[in-house]
Specification:
The protein is of the alpha+beta class. The chain is 12% helix and 24% strand. The chain is built from three helices and eight strands. It has helices spanning 68-72, 78-90, 93-97, and strands at 99-103, 110-117, 120-127, 133-138, 147-150, 156-158, 164-169, 174-179. The protein has a six-stranded antiparallel β-sheet. Strands 4-7 form a two-stranded antiparallel sheet. β5 (147-150) and β6 (156-158) form a beta hairpin.
């Protein structure tokens, strides 16, 4: 799931980190039976393995270690994270329908962009490096003293003069920050 323009696409099984059958030719590599449970056939089918159109993935990414049932009950699972990403993406129409602009960041490992509609904007900042960074990004037209709210945590960041936004990011971390408007909370938004 990405906040970049275009239609987000998840391929079959990616929401749980399901493996592929790399021994199979072409598209058959990703057409393995869905891993619903750790049971025989991954819960996809109780039939003998030879009767399945494609073999069940084995090893570290097979159903004994990666399956929907186990992840559905684990708040720290990839499936739970994917659900959260999808929910937050749906709550931010700017990401799907807004005007998109890549912004300069002061670190070569950081991608920053803003997506905006007349009703609001979301600043997305992604750290593609293996080290923690504090990214500095200037958002055109943003005044100092504006609050930006992290759509995942609810934490806020305040813009500095000239629209400068400093964002702390973990290695390979990201933040999607909604630029608060007076409609969000008139008492918390201050223009300087």
């Amino acid at each position: 799931m990405s906040p970049l323009p275009g239609t987000p696409v998840l391929f079959y099984g990616e929401e749980i980190g399901m493996g592929e059958n790399l021994a199979a030719e072409g598209r058959q590599a990703v057409r393995t039976p869905m891993q619903w449970t750790a049971d025989k056939g991954g819960g996809f089918s109780g039939a003998d393995a030879a009767a399945l159109p494609n073999p069940v993935v084995e090893g570290a990414f097979g159903p004994k270690r990666v399956n929907v049932h186990d992840q559905a009950h684990d708040p720290d699972s990839l499936l739970a994270r994917m659900r959260t990403l999808i929910e937050r993406y749906r709550e931010a129409p700017e990401l799907a329908w807004g005007a998109y602009e890549v912004l300069d960041a002061d670190d070569p490992g950081v991608l920053a962009h803003i997506s905006s509609l007349p009703e609001g904007a979301v600043l997305a900042v992604h750290n593609f490096s293996d080290r923690a960074v504090t990214a500095a990004t200037t958002v055109p037209g943003l005044k100092g003293g504006r609050l930006l709210t992290d759509v995942f945590t609810g934490d806020t960041v305040k813009s500095a003069a000239g629209g400068l936004v400093r964002t702390e990011l973990e290695p390979y971390g990201y933040r999607w920050l909604r630029v608060n408007t007076p409609l969000d909370d008139p008492d918390r938004v201050t223009d300087v």
